[in-house]
Amino acid sequence: MEAGTLVEWRIQPGGNVKRGDIVALVETEKGVIEVEIFESGVVESILASPGQKVPVGGVLATIRAEGEAPRAAPARLYISPAARRRAGELGVELSKLQGTGEAGAVTMADVERAAQKGIEAARPPIPSAEPQAAIRRAIAAAMARSKREIPHYYLAARIDMSRATGWLREENLKRPVTERLLYSVLLIKATGLALKRFPELNGFWVDGGFKPAEGIHVGVAISLRQGGLVAPAIHDVDKKGLDELMKSMLDLVSRARTGTLRSSEISDATITVSNIGEQGVEALFGVIYPPQVALVAFGKLTEQPWAENGMVGARPVVVASLSADHRASDGHRGGRFLSAVDRLLQEPEKL
Amino acid sequence: MKSEQMREAVMKVLGRIAPEADLASIDPAGSLRDQLDIDSVDFLNFMIGLHSELGVQIPEADVAKLSSLDGCIAYLLSKSAAS
User: Fold this and answer.
1) Domain A3-117 annotated CATH 2.40.50.100
2) CA dist list (Å): A58 to A61, A75, A82, A268
3) What is the mean pLDDT of residues A179-195?
4) Of B17, B21, B40, which is closest to A182 when you measure between CB atoms?
């Protein structure tokens, strides 16, 4: 994702904002997302107008921290932290950059252009394409990069789901519709808990090395009926109870359908979980979403013969699979991770 | 509530769950999940939407009765008549 179109401001100059507030809506190739603010203060100036194309990492507005004196308007270089960091990585001197954003703000694109071609005048932004084509292009770029760069390995394990589904059935009979639990929330929670013991599967491969994530933010794969898919994050899955997770998932799917996901939900996932079994397939060996290093998928719940303690019976069984980046982890640990997911699902009441 | 009013209420909730769907082309006797390609999360949101819109309780054991548009309308009318 390189750019979006500003749809609407939810703030005004002089207004107060606090960390976490939704300040704007931006239409991107992944649908309309809500842009959150990451610091509190007073809106000093708004640098982009509705309808304007804005690059990812570009400055949309400036915020003055509470107690900070108003900025002298000229002379200051307006550049986002992401663009500043990128300039440092590419060795681009900030003082020689020409900003092409509103009010002369330096955008990520300005930094990239300066690095590649020296200091040049910015070209006008690429005209916006059909949203579906844009989603397809974003998926194409990410998946091609994944297959080109990530040495995937794949593992699968059959898991007896009779205890989990039995517990869920009993639990749901006691619950009103507003508090009902879905089977997939058990899978997501078990994955999140198992990851605590396998941090090498939860994080990012960046700058030639593995960087473990600070939290366990599971990207839930949601296929969009008009085409494409998104995998917005449910944050801190390991710390949330099933009820809280369920509410997060219902909300996330509902907002993915109406195109109102938040920027942090789009970008924060540290691993992806797919419950593609709902589509009838028995197993999926997924393509990792870079820079993540793993993807966990659950196939269709099917009744199968299952032997235990010398007895054979029919059990609901699911195939859990792991696609993992061999640069960050090995099959031995990947296998133990799937075993941990299995064990957790045998005690659903403890999830 | 009459059947037509109930149908409108159900369609209104469905429109929120599947905003891109062509609701006019739904086969009233066919599976809503298949026709609208809605998953289990969407379907639960649909049940919660019906509960909020119409104030009816939908026990887990009854969910299968709401799999089609006709099934939904018949079930919800019976609940509304009983209350």
Assistant:
1) yes
2) 9, 18, 8, 18
3) 97
4) B40
